[in-house]
Amino acid sequence: MDEKDNIELRSEKVRNIIGGVPPRLVRTGTVVIITICVALALAAWLIKIDGTPVWRMIFFSRM
Description:
Layout: H1 12-19, H2 23-46, E1 48-49, E2 52-53, H3 54-60
Antiparallel strand pairs: 1-2
């Protein structure tokens, strides 16, 4: 087994850095997902097809 593949040979500080997800990455991902959801909701509210808002078509259409 290679030395670089054996994580047990490294110190505890290095194992903590390798094993953790950076908080900045989590925050950025959350902001991106929320921004996309808000943009889609805003688009559904603003876009009209034949005079009917898209959000009404989505929630009140008969299936």
